[in-house]
Amino acid sequence: xxxxxxxxxxxxxxxxxxxxxxxxxxxEPEKSLITIRKxxxxxxxxxxxxxxxxxxxxxxLREVDFIRARFDIPATVTAVEYDPNRGARLGLISYKDGVxxxxxxxxxxxxxxxxxxxxxxxxxxxxxxxPLEKIPVGTPVHCVELQPxxxxxxxxxxxARIEFVAIEGDFATLKLPSGEMRMVPKSCMAxxxxxxxxxxSLVRWGKAGRMRHRGIRPTVRGKVMNPVDHPHGGxxxxxxxxxxxxxxxxxxxxxxxxxxxxxxxxxxxxxxRRRGNKLKLS
Length: 282
Prior knowledge:
The protein is mainly beta and 282 residues long. The chain has 2 helices and 17 strands. It has one domain: CATH 2.40.50.140.
């Protein structure tokens, strides 16, 4: 959706931009499909385990159907809704038997369009959900399963588009938005099309207050702390960190560190890492 900018009548407004909500057709969520979002503020057992979280406005969780297991039953998009918990738009769909559910809305889909989920045969059209083995190679997809029946896990963010590269044997090869190439079982389900609201990444939040509304608290640089508080702390005026590599608050490597757990069973399914490092398949 387009990004809107206002006249810079204040300092905070000068650098900020907002979404254009002209595509939203229903302002209030479906009451039968929402639950209250409990706030933990980054705490486990009362102790901070994730810093810089807390506060934020009250939000309801929309129960999005990532599995779409009602096969071969056509559903009509009855509303386009805003979701405060994600960048993509939600589509409220109504099946012929009256059941309603939320889906991640594909880009370009509007009220009145029909979608269907099928394991055997369905039209190759935007919003339809099929196994990868039933989708032509080269078709853009999103909400792809990692394991059959587990529900969409890959390609759910605003504007996300997964390239269906090839299919060989029991696996399909995908190119993810990060550049990673990986294989998933060809029986995994995927939704055809690109995720809606591709301009989400262009929003400039502009001021700290808008981040506090999102539940994000201030982040202080280590180099402006005291030595007792951070390895980068101390010194006079603006200064470099004074060490060979950046460290975390607890003295460990901070940049360029691999965070993926070693020797995972799915390592053999990753053809190329996001940084272009090819893996040897055994």
